[in-house]
Each structure stands twice: as structure tokens, then as C-alpha cells.
């Protein structure tokens, strides 16, 4: 059921209760979790935080914790799963779901009591959900032929039943056909709605408990959705505009000279930032070599590409020594003019969308970080392979990532930035090799590529978020590297990527991303994978909350891909 | 050499300083006191002789040496006794007013008496703070909040709180609990306080 007033129906109900919060493992969920934590602390609500990475985790943790908690909050998990069926809760348990995954499972939406969804009032989304009458109707009793039904009129006239019941059966069949069609259309594409951290920030604002810290976490959540290409540019700009409103309200004291806030408060600034990865924490040259737009535009894995990149730098007028210097030690004049220089030269070299609207936070004189860097850092901490003992992500990554988010001056944040650099380097190296060797194959309705078990960086790609990031880099670079005619076609093709997940068990992880041209980021692979798996009876597990990512046994891979090709043509 | 037995006492205490209290070395202390007695009597004789016969100054240095040894022995014994008492005092804050029997066996009688008197003083002081008294030994640091956030370092099973509700302590789960009820787990190292 959809909650209309989250303050009254959700927060006031849990004020004197213990709460269990189940947090999915992505930056948006972590940000929402931090905002919730501070709200809980204000009201002394006792809580327990549990990280869940997959649906099986959700079920397991629920089984273990169910006696102790009657109110359970799910962050970025559970909207697209039939919660009542999967978890089978007892009568007095209530679920509050704050999730950006769509489409929302219809049972969750229409359930009266136990499952409550907290969404932003987006009329488009609610209109997209099929009407109640289309999905459910009063079912007549099964023995229609022999017994009377709900209709009280025809109790006595049994002779007429044959004709009337045939009509009813036909009508019912038609209704079921229509229902199946509508549900199929509804669940065909999976996409992302408003991010969870924005929803929770909204809740905090309605209770007048918002402040700069919470706003920063909301910003990080929205940036995470955009950076991992879960939402298109339009939706991102809408989110940014809303956040900008809050930001100017909370930070306006800076403009008044007499009453400006001390330098030791955290301040958030709005800026038009360059879309270069980690450029403030790296050298300009490295950053240009590792950002998605420049990697694909300049084809930095080729010699010609590198020459072009050097030309670009020369065009901007920044000497090579300065470019290779750490950003902090670059000449101040160049740093100040960097944005304008890059913008001018970018057009000449065919770089588009190099600037985007973003925020940065500052605390004291030392600590300044921009939103996208914070997201890179926390993502890297979450999927940190250096702490992997047996190939599966240790849950302590969750705690590390939470710590990294806690303050912008946290030392974990710096650690995360270093890890992010390593991961970006792995991505860049592999993108180059893949395109050189021609490992991206066109299978008709989609492009396909796979990461071999022997490759040195395969561990970075066994986790969903990084696998997705890599596939986006790869798709963009591949499309740019094609000739003009092929490019026209390729821009509408989605990409399927396969990587080794667990070498001992022989399991690989398969992910699909929507084509470049599609700004709505609607992903049809969720359903496609399920159908392909059913057809070939492959041993797959659709365990991740994002339905376009699955794991399966290596042996079934080839027949699965063949089935996928047939389904999608 | 003079003063060696006293040094032995100190060494023994030093060896045990990180663990709990070692047994009270009754013999050692008695031997040192005997040595002191011998030195003192020898000195008494020599000084009497010096006062009598002011021309013969040869035993002056001997007197000096014995005097210094006496002082050294005294200092060593005092250090030994004082440090033991300091250790016993810290045990009170760690274990509470009833000590485990094996530690009690290691204390001498006088030390036991001292301990009871210390207990009484501490209890009187704590009773005098505020209405109904304040138990200072409960918290490791002055508490800032009623509730604190803790992270569970290892699997511990269920923890039952005062109001009857249970918390499942799993590795790497985070909880927000009343301070008083997780303080002892923090001390044991099962939970870690997150600031």
C-alpha cells in the first residue's frame, strides 16, 4: 500500500518501537540509511542495521531477526519482490519499503496492511501501475457448473446455468488474457525510480529535522544513480534542481558578510563540474585517461588516441608537466581556468556532455570533496576486493563504507579514493584490451562480451556495480570505435556481459545494460533472462535485487545465450 | 651484595605487572627486613665506636655504605608495597567490590584490610554524589548519550534487554541500544562503540 503521509503513517508509528533496517549494498541505500540513522537518533528509536546483498540474504536475515523486530524497513530492496510470499511474515509484522527499483510488485502495491511503500508522489509512476480491477476481481467459486455463485438472483433457476456459465467462463478467459497482457507490459522493463535517499531526506524535511549533513547524503544518493547510469540525464537534472532548492535554503548564510558561518561548519556549494573521474584527487592527465567520456572519445588505448589526447592538452594550453602533476600541486592559475579551457577545447575534439551540474562539500580549509568523488570512493569501499577472503564480499565492507560516508573528513574516504583509482585503472586497461582484441561480438539483437577467467583483473568485475560500470565504459568505447554506418545501428543495441564470479564453484555473473541511445534507461533483460533460463533449464539464480544481473553455472552459459538470442529477435 | 634481595622483589613485581596480582612475597620482604636489621645493628656499633674514638675515622665509609643500603632497601620495599596497593585499587574498578578468590589468595592480610577500607571509602563517596548515589564504576568514560551505536565484532547470539526485547548479535551488524545494557559487552570486546 502506498503511504500518503509518511510522517504520520510511518515515522510516528515507529517512534516507540524497535526497528530492523535492512540495507541493500549500494551507495544510495547507504545514504538513505545514514539519514534514517540520524532521524532515529533524534527520537531515540532503537534500531538494528543489517546489510543484505541479495534476495537470499534478505530471506535469511529475516528468518533470524523476525522474533525480535516487528517493524522492518527495507532500503533499496524489496519493492520488486513479492514480500508476503517470499518472507511469509506473521500477522503483526509490518514492512516499510523505501526502494528505487521499479516496477513495483503488484502484490506489494495492492496489499492492504502489512507492506507499506513510501514513494515520492510522482503521478506518472502511479499511473503506470495497472488498475485494481484489471488485476483482481472477486473470484466466483470454482464449481460454477454445479453450484450457485455470488449472484443471488439465479439461485433457483438452475436450468439456465449452462448457457450463463459458459458466457461467464468465456468472459473470465478473456479477462485473464487481458490481465496477462497488461501485467507483461507492466513488468517488461525494469528501471529505477526516485532514489531512496531523496525520499528519506524529504521525510526529514517534512519533520523539519533536515540539515546540511543529511542534504549531503541525499546529494550523494542522487549522484550515485546518475553516475552508475541508472537514470538518464533528465531525471538527474530534476533531482539536482530539487536539491539545489534545499541547498540554498540551508547555506544562504554565506552570502551575508556580517553573519557568515564559521569555516568549521560544513558548507555545500552548487557548481557546474567537469565529468572527469576523480580529477581533484589525481593528476589531470590520469583523470582524462580514466573518465568514460574521454576514454571513448580519444580511444586512449591506441597510440593515435594518446597523441590526440596530447593534442587536446596542448590545445588547452596546459604544459604536460602540469597535467601530470597531482591536481593539488598544479599551478593555481591553471586550476582556476581549467573548466573554461576544457569546455572550449572539448567541442573541437567532439567531446560532449563534459560538464554536469553537481555539488561539492567543504569542511574547514582542508577538506573539500565533490559529490561524484564521494560516490566513487564509497562504491570502491563497498566492493573492495582486497578484503575478500573467499571470494564473497565480507560484510565488514558495509561498515567501512558507512564509516567513509559519515564525515567528509573521514580517513576511510581517502582510502576509498585510492581504491577507486585502482578500480578505474582496471576498467581502463581491460576496455583497451577488449576493443583491440575484438572481444565485443554482435549477436544480432544485442552485443555480447565476456571476461576470461585468466585475466588479471577479473576480481574487480565479479561485483555488480563495477561490472555495470565496466560495461558502460565498454559500450561507449565500442560504439565510438565503429565506423559511421555501423555506429548508427550499434547505438541502439544493448550489451550483455559475462564475468567469472566464483572460480571454484564455476559460477559466472551475467549483466545486461540498455543501449546508449535510450535515456530512460529501461532495461528489458530482467524478464529476458528469466525466460531464457526457463527455456534452457539452466541453473541460474536471479538473486540480485536488480533483475538484470544474474549468476549461473559456466556450463549452461552457451545454451543460455543462444536462447537469449532467439527470445530477443 | 646489599640491596639485591630488595631488587629481586621489584623484579618479581615487574614481571607480573601486566597480569593480575602475583602472590605476596612474605619471605622476600622478611629477608630484606632482616638484612636491614643486620645493617642497622652494625651501623649502631660503628657509630657508637666513632663517637667514642674521634681519631679513628676508618669506619666512616662503611657507615656511609650501610646507611645508603638501608635507604635503598627501604625505598625498594615501599615501592613494592605501594605498587601492589595501586594494582589492588585498579582491580576494584575492574572487578567490582568482590574479588575473585584466586586474586584474594595472593593478597596479604593487611592488603585485604586495606581493600575493604578502600571499598568503604569509595562507596561512601559514590553515595554522596547526587540523590541516591552514582555508581562511578559502571561506565568506562563519562556517558554522553542514553543510547549509543555499537557494532558487533563477533557472533554472540541473543542479548536480552531490560524491557524484554531481544537483539540478535551477528557479526558486522550495527545496533542502537541503551548504553547501560551494552556497557559490559563493550568492556568484553564483543561490541565496539562507534563515535
Estimate the mean pLDDT confidence of chain A. Answer: 84
Report the sheet with the most strands of chain B, covering strand number, pairing sense and barrel closure: 3 strands, antiparallel
Order of helices and strands of chain B: HHHHHEEEEHE
| Total of helices of chain B | 6
User: Order of strands across the biggest sheet of chain B?
Assistant: 4-1-5
Rg over C-alpha atoms of chain A, rounded to the nearest angstrom: 26 Å
Give start-end ranges of low-pLDDT stretches of chain A.
141-155
Radius of gyration of chain B: 26 Å
Number of discrete helical segments of chain A: 23
Helix content of chain A: 40-55%
Report the β-strand fraction of chain A as a percent range: 5-15%
Describe the oligomeric state of these chains in a short phrase: heterodimer
Structural class of chain B: mainly alpha
Write up what this structure looks like:
- The complex is a heterodimer of chains A (569) and B (195).
- Chain A has a six-stranded mixed β-sheet with strand order 11-12-13-14-16-15. Chain A has a five-stranded parallel β-sheet with strand order 2-1-3-4-6, with helices on both faces. A three-stranded antiparallel β-sheet of chain A has the order 8-9-10.
- Chain A has helices at 6-14, 27-43, 55-65, 83-87, 106-110, 123-128, 132-135, 161-188, 196-206, 212-227, 233-251, 284-290, 292-298, 303-316, 320-324, 332-348, 371-382, 396-406, 411-437, 464-481, 484-490, 525-536, 557-568; strands at residues 19-24, 47-52, 71-75, 94-98, 101-102, 115-117, 191-192, 266-274, 355-363, 367-370, 441-442, 447-450, 495-502, 507-513, 540-541, 549-553.
- In chain A, strand 11 (441-442) and strand 12 form a beta hairpin.
- Chain A is 49% helix and 14% strand.
- Chain A contains 23 helices and 16 strands.
- With 569 residues, chain A is an alpha/beta fold.
- The model of chain A is unreliable at 141-155 (pLDDT under 50).
- In chain A, helix 2 (27-43) runs antiparallel to helix 10, helix 10 runs antiparallel to helix 11 and helix 18 (396-406) packs across helix 19.
- By secondary structure, chain B is mainly alpha-helical.
- In chain B, 57% of the residues lie in helices and 11% in strands.
- Chain B is built from six helices and five strands.
- Chain B has helices at residues 4-15, 26-52, 60-95, 101-106, 109-128, 179-188, and strands at residues 147-152, 157-160, 166-169, 174-178, 191-193.
- Chain B has a three-stranded antiparallel β-sheet, covered by helices on one side. In chain B, strands 2-3 form a two-stranded antiparallel ribbon.
- In chain B, helix 1 packs antiparallel against helix 2, helix 1 runs parallel beside helix 3 and helix 2 runs antiparallel to helix 3 (60-95).
- Chain B is elongated and about 90 Å long.
- The mean pLDDT of chain B is 86.
- The chains are: A alpha/beta (569), B mainly alpha (195).
- Chain A binds chain B through residues 18, 37, 40-41, 44-51, 64-65, 67-68, 394-396, 398-399, 402-403, and chain B through 146-147, 149, 151, 158, 165-168, 170-178, 194.
Amino acid at each position: 500500500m502506498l503511504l500518503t503521509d509518511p510522517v504520520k503513517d510511518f515515522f510516528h508509528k515507529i517512534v516507540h518501537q524497535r526497528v530492523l533496517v535492512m540495507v541493500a549494498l549500494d551507495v544510495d541505500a547507504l545514504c538513505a540509511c545514514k539519514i534514517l540513522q540520524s532521524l532515529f537518533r533524534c527520537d531515540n528509536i532503537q534500531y538494528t542495521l543489517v546489510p543484505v546483498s541479495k534476495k537470499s540474504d534478505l530471506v535469511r536475515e529475516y528468518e533470524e531477526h523476525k522474533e525480535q523486530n516487528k517493524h522492518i524497513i527495507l532500503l533499496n530492496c524489496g519493492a520488486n519482490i513479492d514480500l508476503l510470499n517470499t518472507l511469509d511474515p506473521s500477522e503483526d509484522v509490518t514492512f516499510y519499503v523505501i526502494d528505487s527499483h521499479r516496477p513495483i510488485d503488484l502484490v506489494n502495491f495492492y496489499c492492504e496492511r502489512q507492506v507499506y511503500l513510501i514513494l515520492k508522489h510522482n503521478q506518472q509512476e502511479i499511473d503506470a501501475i495497472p488498475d485494481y480491477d484489471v488485476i483482481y476481481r472477486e473470484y466466483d467459486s470454482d464449481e460454477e457448473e454445479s453450484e450457485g455463485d455470488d449472484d443471488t438472483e439465479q439461485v433457483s433457476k438452475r436450468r439456465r446455468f449452462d448457457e450463463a456459465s459458459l458466457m461467464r467462463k468465456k468472459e473470465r478467459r478473456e479477462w485473464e488474457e487481458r490481465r496477462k497482457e497488461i501485467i507483461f507490459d507492466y513488468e517488461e522493463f525494469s528501471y529505477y525510480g526516485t532514489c531512496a535517499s531523496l525520499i528519506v531526506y524529504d521525510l526529514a524535511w517534512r519533520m523539519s529535522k533536515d540539515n546540511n549533513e543529511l542534504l549531503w547524503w541525499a546529494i550523494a544518493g542522487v549522484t550515485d544513480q546518475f553516475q552508475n547510469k541508472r537514470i538518464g540525464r533528465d531525471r538527474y537534472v530534476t533531482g539536482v534542481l530539487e536539491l539545489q532548492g534545499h541547498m540554498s535554503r540551508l547555506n544562504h548564510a554565506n552570502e551575508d558578510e556580517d553573519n557568515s558561518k564559521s569555516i568549521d561548519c560544513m558548507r555545500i556549494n552548487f557548481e557546474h563540474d567537469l565529468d572527469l573521474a576523480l580529477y581533484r584527487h589525481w593528476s589531470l592527465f590520469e583523470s582524462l585517461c580514466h573518465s568514460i567520456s574521454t576514454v571513448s572519445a580519444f580511444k586512449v588505448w591506441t597510440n593515435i588516441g594518446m597523441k590526440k589526447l596530447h593534442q587536446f592538452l596542448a590545445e588547452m594550453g596546459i604544459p604536460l608537466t602540469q597535467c601530470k602533476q597531482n591536481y593539488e600541486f598544479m599551478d593555481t592559475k591553471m586550476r582556476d581556468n581549467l573548466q573554461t579551457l576544457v569546455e572550449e577545447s572539448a567541442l573541437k575534439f567532439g567531446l560532449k556532455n563534459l560538464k554536469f551540474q553537481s555539488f561539492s562539500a567543504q569542511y574547514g580549509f582542508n577538506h573539500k570533496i565533490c559529490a561524484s568523488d564521494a560516490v566513487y570512493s564509497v562504491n570502491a569501499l563497498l566492493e573492495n576486493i582486497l578484503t575478500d577472503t573467499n571470494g564473497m564480499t565480507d560484510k565488514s565492507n558495509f561498515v567501512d563504507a558507512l564509516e567513509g560516508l559519515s564525515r567528509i573528513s573521514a580517513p576511510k574516504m581517502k582510502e576509498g579514493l585510492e581504491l577507486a583509482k585502482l578500480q578505474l585503472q582496471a576498467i581502463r586497461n581491460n576496455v583497451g584490451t577488449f576493443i583491440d582484441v575484438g572481444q565485443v561480438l554482435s549477436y544480432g539483437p544485442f552485443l555480447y562480451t565476456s571476461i576470461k577467467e585468466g585475466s588479471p583483473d577479473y576480481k574487480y568485475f565479479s561485483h555488480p556495480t563495477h561490472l555495470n560500470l565496466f560495461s558502460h565504459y565498454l559500450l561507449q568505447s565500442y560504439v565510438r570505435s565503429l565506423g559511421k554506418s555501423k555506429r548508427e545501428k550499434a547505438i541502439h543495441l544493448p550489451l550483455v556481459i559475462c564475468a567469472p564470479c566464483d572460480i571454484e564453484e564455476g559460477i559466472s555473473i551475467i549483466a545486461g545494460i540498455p543501449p546508449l541511445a535510450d535515456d530512460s534507461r529501461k532495461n528489458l533483460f530482467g524478464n529476458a533472462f528469466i525466460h531464457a533460463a526457463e527455456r534452457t533449464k539452466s541453473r541460474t539464480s536471479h538473486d540480485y535485487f536488480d533483475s538484470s544481473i544474474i549468476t549461473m553455472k559456466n556450463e549452461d552459459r552457451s545454451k543460455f545465450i543462444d536462447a537469449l538470442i532467439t527470445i530477443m529477435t | 651484595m646489599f640491596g639485591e634481595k630488595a631488587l629481586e622483589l621489584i623484579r618479581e613485581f615487574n614481571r607480573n605487572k601486566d597480569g593480575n596480582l602475583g602472590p605476596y612475597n612474605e619471605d622476600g620482604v622478611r629477608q630484606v627486613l632482616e638484612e636491614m636489621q643486620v645493617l642497622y645493628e652494625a651501623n649502631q656499633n660503628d657509630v657508637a665506636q666513632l663517637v667514642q674514638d674521634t681519631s679513628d675515622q676508618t669506619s666512616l665509609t662503611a657507615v656511609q655504605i650501610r646507611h645508603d643500603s638501608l635507604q635503598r632497601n627501604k625505598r625498594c620495599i615501599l615501592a613494592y608495597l605501594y605498587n601492589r596497593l595501586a594494582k589492588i585499587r585498579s582491580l576494584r574498578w575492574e572487578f567490582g567490590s568482590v574479588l575473585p578468590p584466586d586474586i584474594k589468595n595472593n593478597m596479604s592480610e593487611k592488603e585485604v584490610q586495606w581493600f575493604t577500607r578502600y571499598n568503604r571509602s569509595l562507596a561512601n563517596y559514590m553515595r554522596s554524589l547526587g540523590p541516591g548515589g552514582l555508581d562511578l564504576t559502571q561506565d568506562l568514560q563519562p556517558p554522553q548519550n542514553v543510547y549509543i551505536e555499537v557494532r558487533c565484532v563477533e557472533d554472540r547470539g541473543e542479548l536480552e534487554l531490560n524491557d524484554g526485547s531481544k537483539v540478535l548479535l551477528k557479526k558486522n551488524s550495527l545496533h542502537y541500544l541503551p548504553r547501560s545494557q551494552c556497557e559490559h559487552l563493550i568492556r568484553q570486546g564483543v561490541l565496539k562503540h562507534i563515535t
